[in-house]
Amino acid sequence: MSWTIEFVSRTAEAELTALPLDMRSRFTRIADLIVLFGLQGVHEPYVKHLDGKLWEMRLKGADGIARSIYVAASGQRVVVLRTFVKKSQETPQRELDIAFARMKEIKP
User: What's the pLDDT tens digit per position in 22-38?
Assistant: First the structure.
């Protein structure tokens, strides 16, 4: 069984859609790697552990950098919780708080 990528809500999906094309393409590339090789087969510089169950996809483009925070869910699913343009070295606590709140919305 291969991994699947889904969004926790339409809001989370719209955040990705709002990014420039090159960053969305980078997301698609990383998502394809996860589907092909599983979470165990994809490492930095593509993904990085954040806190607890939260991980981030690292998106880079001509306009800067963005992150998609995700969590592994049951049934070999990756659920994207939050996507945002990153402006500082560390991931802002506000973004982590949003991701943790959205994690409660995941359906088994």
Answer: 999 999 999 999 999 99
For the question of whether the overall pTM of this predicted structure is more than 0.90, the answer is yes
Are 6 and 77 spatial neighbours (Cβ–Cβ below 8 Å)?
A: yes
CATH number (3.30.2310.20, 1.10.1760.20, 1.10.645.10, 3.90.1030.10) of 4-103 reads 3.30.2310.20
Residue in 31, 43, 38, 47 with CA at minimum distance from that of residue 1 = 38
Domain ranges of the chain: 4-103
Q: What confidence score (pLDDT) does residue 69 get?
A: 98
Three-class SS of 39-102: HHHCCCCCEEEEECCEEEEEEEECCEEEEEEEEEECCCEEEEEEEEEECCCCCCHHHHHHHHHH
For 50-76, what is the mean pLDDT? 93
**Phi then psi for 29, rounded to 5 degrees?**
-60, -45
